[in-house]
Automatic annotation (TrEMBL):
Keywords: Endonuclease, Hydrolase, Nuclease
GO cellular component: MutLalpha complex
Domain MutL C-terminal dimerisation as annotated: residue spans: 179-323
GO biological process, one term: mismatch repair
Range of residues in the leader sequence: none
Family matches, as Pfam families: MutL_C
Keyword Nuclease appears in the UniProt entry: yes
Molecular functions per Gene Ontology: ATP binding; ATP hydrolysis activity; ATP-dependent DNA damage sensor activity; endonuclease activity
Name the record gives this protein: Mismatch repair endonuclease PMS2
Hydrolase as UniProt keyword: yes
Length: 363
């Protein structure tokens, strides 16, 4: 086979170039097989037309074209990383928070850079002395002339506190008190002059209800089937006959025989009646002892007092009850009507002194 130019070359009929099909529009000139030499075959006949064949639809380039391999083969590099299951996984460490640094900002670097304004004050030593004198006089006025309450709020000093309160506070003082507010849903804070007081709302209402029951309640009585003869001393018999109304308030009624012998003139007709309380001759003797020591129209036996205290406690304002200022003022004003407003019937304190505001201001 003889190479020719890019457009034309000669091949023999029986040649098959590696059984490949050429992709190109290259013209192939086919010559008949004869015994003519190569020199005469180079010149075509005048009347003979060349047979042209178009080589199309091939997948490769023809071998007749000389091309560089770099023009045909395109090399691309790519790296592939494979996961290896055998390699240990590094543990993920938790990020520790960075410590905060506190920076102190000062104007140390700016000192001396700016001119500060200065103000001249016109004064004199006499003027300063006068101002100091005015200040000292005002400070002296704030100090109380007398410290009224010195006792601490403690169960040990209850008796001393009661003495100070009874000495410094009168019944009219309760009506002059100003209600500041309620503390912890159980205590009333009041002010009298420069002194602050704390009042137990349950205890003060209980003692008011207790004394009201003492003054107004007349116990119902139960008549005995057979009157009982009382054997009393002459003195106790006279005390009983002089205070029949007090005994009647406590549920005891008697029959008096003026013609009988002394110590034999009194018979018991009725006794007090209550659901959970039983009364008898012992209560009469206790009343006689109380009347002998302190003649009062409000004398009650201890068991009657305990009954009244239980009733007063149940009907009083409880700890934990929110009160308006009007309700608190009513409770404070009630203390002016109580004979002994310093403790409830069970011994619980009703009022204590907190602090003197003038002493706080001077400190």
């Amino acid at each position: 086979m003889k190479l020719c130019d890019e457009t034309e070359f000669n091949v023999t009929e029986d040649e098959n170039i590696n059984d490949h099909t050429f992709t190109s529009n290259t013209i192939v000139k086919k010559e008949p097989a004869n015994d003519v030499d190569e020199e005469s075959s180079d010149i075509p006949a005048e009347n003979e037309k060349p047979e042209v064949m178009y080589l199309e639809f091939s997948n490769e380039l023809p071998y007749t074209q000389i091309r560089n391999i770099s023009d045909v083969v395109i090399e691309k590099s790519k790296t592939i990383y494979c996961k290896n299951t055998n390699t240990p996984v590094k543990p993920v460490l938790a990020l520790t928070p960075k410590s905060k640094k506190q920076e102190v900002v000062t104007d140390k670097e700016e000192l001396g850079k700016y001119n500060r304004k200065s103000i001249m004050l016109k004064t004199s030593i006499d003027h300063v002395a006068k101002l100091a004198e005015i200040y000292n006089n005002q400070k002296q006025k704030l100090k109380p002339d007398k410290i009224k309450f010195k006792s601490e709020i403690s169960p040990v000093h209850n008796k001393k506190c009661e003495e100070e309160l009874s000495r410094e506070i009168s019944k009219d003082s309760f009506k002059d008190m100003i209600v500041i507010g309620q503390f912890n849903l159980g205590f009333i804070i009041t002010k009298l002059g420069e002194d602050l007081f704390i009042i137990d709302q349950h205890a003060t209402d209980e003692i008011y209800n207790f004394e009201t029951l003492q003054k107004t309640t007349e116990l119902t009585s139960q008549k005995l089937v057979i009157p009982q003869q009382l054997e009393l001393s002459g003195v106790n018999e006279e005390i009983l006959m002089d205070n029949l109304q007090i005994f009647k308030k406590n549920g005891f009624t008697f029959e008096i025989d003026e013609n009988a012998l002394p110590t034999k003139r009194v018979k018991l007709l009725t006794i007090p009646m209550s659901k959970n309380w039983i009364f008898g001759k012992d209560d009469i003797e206790e009343l006689l002892f109380m009347l002998r020591e302190n003649d009062s129209e409000y004398c009650r036996p201890s068991r009657v007092r305990a009954m009244f205290a239980s009733r007063a406690c149940r009907k009083s304002v409880m700890i934990g009850t929110a009160l308006s200022k009007a309700d608190m003022k009513v409770l404070v004003d009630h203390m002016a009507d109580i004979d002994k407003p310093w403790n409830c019937p069970h011994g619980r304190p009703t009022i204590r002194h907190l602090v003197n505001l003038a002493m706080v201001h001077t400190e």
